[in-house]
Amino acid sequence: MSTGPHYKICPACRTEYRLVATRCADCDVDLVDGNALPAEEDELDAFPPASELECVRVAPIKWIQVLSQALQERGVAHRVEPGRVGDAPDGQRPDVFGDTQLFGLYVQSEHAPAARELDGSIAAQILPDEAPILEEGEEEACPACGTALTRDATECPDCGLQFG
Known about the structure:
The protein is 21% helix and 16% strand. The chain contains 3 helices and 8 strands, in the order E-E-E-H-E-H-E-E-H-E-E. The protein is α+β, with helices and mostly antiparallel strands. Residues 131-135 have low confidence and may be disordered. The longest helix is centred in the last third of the chain and has 15 residues, at 112-126. The chain starts with 7 loop residues before the first strand and ends in a 15-residue tail after the last strand. The protein has 2 domains: 1-37; 47-149, no CATH class. Helix 2 packs across helix 3. The protein is globular and about 55 Å long.
């Protein structure tokens, strides 16, 4: 009687296959035994704790969700945890959100510059005081979907993200 896994798995996309399969139909990579990869929860636990990462932003959950989604689309691993005003990087003022529960978004040091740039485009929409000055002819873009916006837009006409 076999005690091994009853399936194979793609190491890239984690699609499960029958034992007779050898390559992933989508990723075109060799499959591995079902027990060869750690569970996704184990991978999250292997990601460094927030104390070993750089904080990109402390803000209400809606902002953090938009930033998290944008980072996921770019393949940047990150961690989201409850945050405090004191956790915020220099120059950020999460106290402007009042009594709202805050969350921090953290990334590894090598991803911090790109994550901060992305966060800056979100900040430009949500907190005008943090908005970079646009050159003549430059348009603002929705931080969630990239749709061009007018300077006074309060909501993205494409994805519905609200600014304010």
